[in-house]
Amino acid sequence: MKSAVETLEPTKVRLTVEVTLDELKPSIDHAYKHIAEQITVPGFRKGKVPPRIVDQRVGRAAVMEHAVNEGLSGFYADAVRDNDLRPLAPPEVDVTAVPGLPGKDEKPSDELRFTAEVVVRPVLDLPDLSTWKVEVDGTEVTDEDIAERLDALRERFGTLVGVDRPAADGDFVALDLVAKIDDEPVDQVSGVSYRIGSGTMLDGMDEALTGLSAGETTTFETALAGGDHAGEKAQVTLTATAVKERRLPEADDEFAEEASEFDTIDELRDDLRTQAGASKVAEQVSQARDRLLDRLLADVDIPVPTDLVEAEVAEHLSGEGREADDEHRAEVTEESTTTLRRQILLDTLAEKLQVKVSQDELLQYLLSMSQQYGMDPSTFISTLSERGQVPAVAAEVARGKSLAVALRRVTVVGPDGNPIDLSQYIGTDAEDQAPTPDSSGSDSDSDAATDLPAAPASSSSASDISSVF
User: Fold this and answer.
1) Average pLDDT over residues 341-352
2) Is the pLDDT at 61 greater than 80, yes or no?
3) Helix/strand/coil (H/E/C) assignment for every residue in 383-400
């Protein structure tokens, strides 16, 4: 089989493939066998009809159509592999010649020829990470950090007390809500409790409730956040039925005994200091990953296939029933473009750094996902496997791990410019390369880890090619 690649765009190529008659013969033989099992010919048992009779009954063209449709996906996959391409979407295939049948030039061909235009992951020019420095915040714990954690703990043991005054930031307001569009009620709730300043309901709600006393009503305009009228402007009327403030217990030894395993408030504060220190170290790791990713996204030229973005946006808007909302379309387009740029970058990074995901890492991720969805782990994993989604999950694990591996290549420094060792949290290359003991106690071989080369942003395989005739 011969194949050649023509670059049409940074994210699109045209494959030209030529398959000899000998290479197509297994598919032709299978086509004759399959058709013979489907037709009835007097004097022949089903499945035993010879090829010449099949040709007479259904025609040579039908046989070749069957053979090409069956073998095309495999030839396409071979061409993709031979040319080291990373498809991001199913190809657009055009068969230009079939053995024994007139081609587009009207002359019978002695080989199968087809072209496939396909969106591919672009080739990125990644920087030398060994020259990079990534700065993160320090881990010094301040008195303010301790006070913040202590106040959060006190809030958990606080009580709500009704007050006879206008509502202020941090107060809890019991309220009734009615939303209207063109004077027609579209939503209403009663007796809901809302904390001013939380920003968890409607834009402008915090401002509308501030200064409102029990029994008072106010109206403001905002965009609805959910339901059939999500995004539409509405007049929202709020009636406060009660205003309450949270009263916190005193931070003393008695509180320490009630809220923790410690006998004194000083012991509790010492423990909160230790917790704050550990949290700041975790924040350093998170900062390092985020800042490295942000810099890569800013410094690396990442072409994005517009067709793929448009398809994603169309599907998203169709699911929401908001195809005509141009403002929302722009937001979704930006989000989809950002997501795709990130995936392309991390897939390339994972490939360049030869990231491997062990079976244990994949299993732990799947177990975590099953908990998020509230499903039995075995059922969850079986469902993903039946839908063929496990490779996509493995690719996502690889993307996350690629950042950790990349952090091993850069120098992470604190505010003072001194290097910080994060190996406890991001691992080491030696740990990745170490053999993993199997259940029998012996070292496992390379099967203990799964190589993850190009992980497509939109999964595509040879099986995505449907009939081309």
Assistant:
1) 95
2) yes
3) HHHHCCCHHHHHHHHHHH
From residue 432, alpha-carbon distances to 338, 360, 401, 424, 441 in Å are 30, 12, 11, 13, 19
Asked if the model's pLDDT at residue 461 lies above 50, the reply is: no
| pLDDT above 70: percentage of residues in the chain | 91
pTM as predicted: 0.74
For residues 384 and 366, is the Cβ–Cβ distance under 8 A?
A: yes
Q: Rounded to an integer, what distance in angstroms lies between the CA atom of residue 345 and that of residue 313?
A: 20
Secondary structure of residue 118 in the 3-state scheme:
strand
Local structure of 459: helix, strand or coil: coil
Q: How far is CA 73 from CA 10, 23, 440, 463, in A?
A: 24, 13, 40, 6
What does pLDDT average to over the chain? 89
Amino acid at 186: V
Structure confidence at residue 436 as a pLDDT band (50, 70, 90): low
Q: Which amino acid is at 111?
A: E
- Name the 3-class secondary structure at 361: helix
Are the beta carbons of 89 and 119 closer than 8 angstroms?
yes
Retrieve residue 399's tokens: 């993307």
Structure tokens at 71: 């073998």
Q: What residues contact residue 55 under an 8 Å CB cut-off, 6+ apart?
A: 63
Structure tokens that stand for 215 in this block = 């029994």
Q: Are 103 and 96 in contact (CB under 8 A)?
A: yes
CA neighbours closer than 13 Å in the CB half-sphere of residue 221: 5
Q: Which residues contact 327 (CB under 8 A, 6 or more apart)?
A: none
Per residue in 394-428, pLDDT (tens digit) is: 999 999 999 999 999 999 999 999 999 999 999 88
Higher pLDDT, 225 or 373: 373
The continuous run of DSSP H or E covering 235 comes out as strand 233-247
Residues 88 and 461 sit within 8 Å (Cβ to Cβ): no
Hey, is 112 helix, strand or coil?
Answer: strand
How many residues are there in the chain?
A: 469
- Residue 286, classed as helix, strand or coil, is helix
Dist. CA 385–CA 392, nearest whole Å: 10
Residue 190's alpha-carbon distances to 77, 147, 306, in angstroms, are 59, 36, 46
